[in-house]
Amino acid sequence: MPTNRAHANRSFQRMVLWGALLVTLVAVGAVGEDPRDDELQIIRDEIIPAEGTETEYGIPLSLHSLPQFAEWWYTLVPRVESDPRYYDALNPLVAPCCDDNQAYQCCCEKNGQACNIIRSGKGLAAHLIHDLDYSMEQVQANVLEWFMFARPDYYMAVEMRSRQQSPQDYGLTTFGSCYRGMCETPISEGGCGGMKELNEPAIEREES
């Protein structure tokens, strides 16, 4: 029969082991929480407009607007291309999919085709000019807001570089998605959304 002292010693040892295990689990949990995620979220909250944000033109920010904006590229852009506001608003903005090009023309735009992130921005610009008679400054500000919402990864990376931080350390890059073979990747996944038909399963999932 074990003595009371031996029984107490074994109980104490079990308590020590369980305590050590608990400390280890807490430590592992703490390690698993990457502080960089918090930093990214802070930057996102500071500069990226949120889903559902009300806009000056009355269409809350949402990827559900992608089909409509892209459709305006086909129907309205031909009607405003000669309007100085169209070029003057888009030309100073970089294309978030290939920022060595202005938003006026993406790097892949040829033979009447363009990627859908650029289609959406140009379609929105055309709507603001043709239907709402917006000024150049209004068009530029609203298209930039749309781009920042639709492709936050690019703009967050640019912001980090301006703060002397490496975007790569946070899983971000300013290297154009078109140059990374992502022309057919959905916009919600950091791509260009397709060169012909819009590829955006995030919309399909929400609507199904």
Mean pLDDT: 85
- Secondary structure: number of strands: 2
Given the helix and strand composition, which structural class is it? mainly alpha
Give the overall shape: globular
Work out the helix count: 9
Q: Which regions contain 5 or more consecutive residues with pLDDT less than 50? A: 14-32
Widest sheet, order of strands: 1-2
The major pleated sheet works out as:
2 strands, antiparallel
Radius of gyration computed on alpha carbons:
25 Å
Number of domains: 1
The termini sit apart by 68 Å
The run of helices and strands is HHHHHEEHHHH
SS strand fraction: under 5%
Helix content: 40-55%
What is this structure, in a nutshell?
The chain is mainly α and 208 residues long.
Using brief descriptors, characterize the structure shown.
208 residues; mainly alpha; two-stranded antiparallel sheet; globular
